[in-house]
Design goal:
Chain lengths: 295, 313
């Protein structure tokens, strides 16, 4: 290093400060906020989510057709069917963006373990849990805002295109808005679930593999088992996995929670609660581990 | 003030720190010495609560680290230069650390200037050299203007100028009445920086004394004697004669002897008694390095293999 360093002890001697430094939860939140938004990975994750959501939304809205090409427009879609189609196009970002937010959620904590930053974090916040809560809150707020902006942004771009397809989205429909907001809530809960997995695994590659495995691979495994054996239990497990249960959050019309011939189906509230339960359980395991293990 | 009582840390079968008790006092630079793997870093991690002790306690300023109200203000710690996210710039790292304690941008700029990081403060840490990483770690440790400083191998990777800077910084901070605890495996570095030295070997404290005392343990153990009558003096002092057992004499040149086990005064008396002319009679001051090697020779965790056998293969 070429910088000339003269010892200038006077600078470290009793600096005049209005109040003595003190560890506060507000300070921890600010710190975690700075940490999240001073990494390029955060910026790229958000850009990718927005591009994927708007891009796929546009793609879907152009291929969406209430009837097959060449066939006469026999029966127009019911209002509810039109709303469901509009919601489905607008929330495509939730279905695809979840992968990106899961990666971000894991990285928020595994990146600190991978680089050794976690030791600086715990030296500043030795009780550790406030740091975990701080990270979770900052991640949740970011995911929620990104989710809302992305989904509503996508809707705002593609809804004007839909009437050409004989679909007339109704912004004043509360259920439509509930599904759009539900998409953002879904993204937030998935990010928190991935974050908790990252805190347990403490390794970026392992954490991302575990989180994406839970989102992408595990549901397929149970669906295949259910499909090939017809086992009701396998189908029920598949329905209770985070992604399938959580999907009810951003569906326009969902049925009631009921069991038909041994197969459980969930409504929006139950689906959301099942996903929330996943997050809470995995987060508690992460918190206990964080407190007990050596950093 | 740092106080450890019966501090023990086991990782599975391996005991890294074995029931050590020590006190690091304010106003002094206390050196923490030991070969690699002796348990220095583990002890420092135990002090700041990153690892939990298997048994025993350690307190800083009378409290467990975890119970401090303003950890960064009370204790500044450099555990290793790599406790920083590589994707973040140095300034942003310091800002994030400072934010936890409500420490402002002004102090961040102060420690950047103090550690000479101005030119690289906006660069991402991933591209830092070991020396720059070390300076950033020291900047982090100083950010809360702490009363206690714990620095693990602070001069690692620093250029000679940086080494002198750390030495002066440590002395200055101790001069202000702060507690300064720094580890090193380099005895020579400690000889110039520390007031008090704690030597650790295989998880146990081998010595805990002022630098002067540790030097005295080896000082005066050998005497250099120059005489035109080397052969006669050698037989006079040789084991079995005069003062008997415990005396060692090595004649490296016809006129130069190194005598162990006798004081310079006694050698002079014996020579005078036999009418031997002496041209030089010098007690050899032991270096701290010698003392350290003597203290730790049985305690080194990883011995280098004998060179000859390596070559023979």
């Amino acid at each position: 290093m070429s910088t000339t360093v003269a010892p200038t002890p006077a600078q470290s001697t009793a600096p005049v400060r209005p109040h003595a430094p003190k560890l506060t939860f507000g300070g921890i939140l600010r710190s975690e906020w700075i940490k999240l938004f001073t990494l390029r990975s955060t910026f790229w994750c958000i850009v990718i989510i927005v591009l994927l959501s708007v891009g796929f939304g546009l793609l879907l809205s152009t291929v969406t057709a209430p009837h097959r090409a060449g066939e006469p427009v026999a029966a127009a879609l019911t209002t509810a069917q039109q709303q469901a189609q509009a919601v489905s196009d607008a929330t495509i970002g939730a279905a695809i963006g979840e992968l990106v937010l899961a990666v971000l959620g894991v990285l928020v904590i595994s990146g600190e373990y991978g680089t050794g930053m976690i030791r600086s974090t715990f030296a500043a916040v030795p009780k550790r849990l406030p740091a975990l809560f701080g990270k979770a809150i900052v991640l949740a707020v970011t995911s929620l805002v990104v989710g809302l902006v992305t989904i509503y942004g996508t809707a705002a771009i593609i809804f004007p295109l839909l009437p050409g397809k004989k679909i007339h989205p109704d912004w004043t429909d509360w259920h439509l808005n509930l599904a759009l907001i539900g998409g953002a809530v879904y993204l937030t809960l998935i990010a928190l679930l991935a974050f908790s997995i990252g805190a347990i695994v403490r390794n970026s590659a392992g954490g991302i593999a575990a989180a994406l495995g839970l989102i992408l691979v595990v549901p397929s495994v149970f669906s295949i088992v259910a499909g090939t054996t017809g086992a009701a239990w396998a189908q029920n497990v598949a329905n209770l996995l985070p992604t399938s249960a959580g999907a009810h959050l951003y569906a326009y019309a969902t049925g009631k929670t009921e069991t038909v011939s041994g197969i459980l189906s969930l409504d929006r509230t139950a689906g959301g609660l099942v996903l929330l339960a996943w997050v809470v359980v995995v987060f508690i395991i992460a918190a206990v581990q964080l407190k007990r293990r050596d950093a | 003030m740092i106080e450890a009582v019966g501090l023990t840390k086991r990782y599975g079968e391996k005991t890294a720190v074995d029931g050590i008790s020590f006190t690091v006092r304010p106003g002094l630079v206390t050196g923490f010495l030991g070969p690699n793997g002796a348990g220095k870093s583990t002890t420092m991690r135990l002090i700041v609560g990153l690892d939990r002790p298997t048994s025993g306690t350690v307190t800083v300023a009378g409290k467990r680290y975890v119970d401090l109200k303003a950890p960064l203000h009370e204790v500044g710690v450099l555990l290793d230069a790599k406790a920083v996210h590589t994707g973040r710039t140095a300034r942003n790292h310091l800002l994030a650390m400072a934010a936890t304690h409500g420490i402002g941008r002004k102090r961040v700029d102060e420690v950047i200037a103090l550690t000479g990081l101005q030119s690289v403060a906006s660069k991402r840490v991933g591209g830092f050299s070991l020396g720059m990483g070390q300076r950033l770690g020291i900047a982090s440790a100083l950010i809360g203007d702490p009363g206690i400083l714990i620095l693990d191998e602070p001069v690692n990777g620093l250029d000679p100028e940086g080494v002198i800077w750390v030495r002066e910084l440590a002395r200055h901070l101790a001069g202000e009445g702060r507690t300064v605890f720094l580890s090193s495996h380099l005895m020579s570095e400690m000889a110039q920086t520390a007031d008090q030295i704690i030597v650790l070997g295989r998880g146990k404290i081998i010595a805990d004394a002022p630098v002067g005392d540790i030097l005295a343990q080896v000082a005066g153990k050998a005497v250099r004697v120059r005489t035109p009558d080397g052969a006669r003096l050698e037989s006079l002092l040789a084991p079995g004669s005069a003062d008997g057992a415990g005396v060692t004499v090595t004649r490296t040149d016809p006129d130069l002897l190194t005598v162990g086990g006798l004081t310079a005064a006694r050698i002079g008396e014996l020579a005078a008694g036999s009418g031997i002319v002496l041209h030089e009679l010098t007690p050899i001051a032991g270096s701290l390095e010698d003392a350290y090697l003597a203290l730790t020779e049985d305690e080194v965790e990883y011995h280098a293999g004998a060179l000859e056998t390596e070559i023979a293969r």
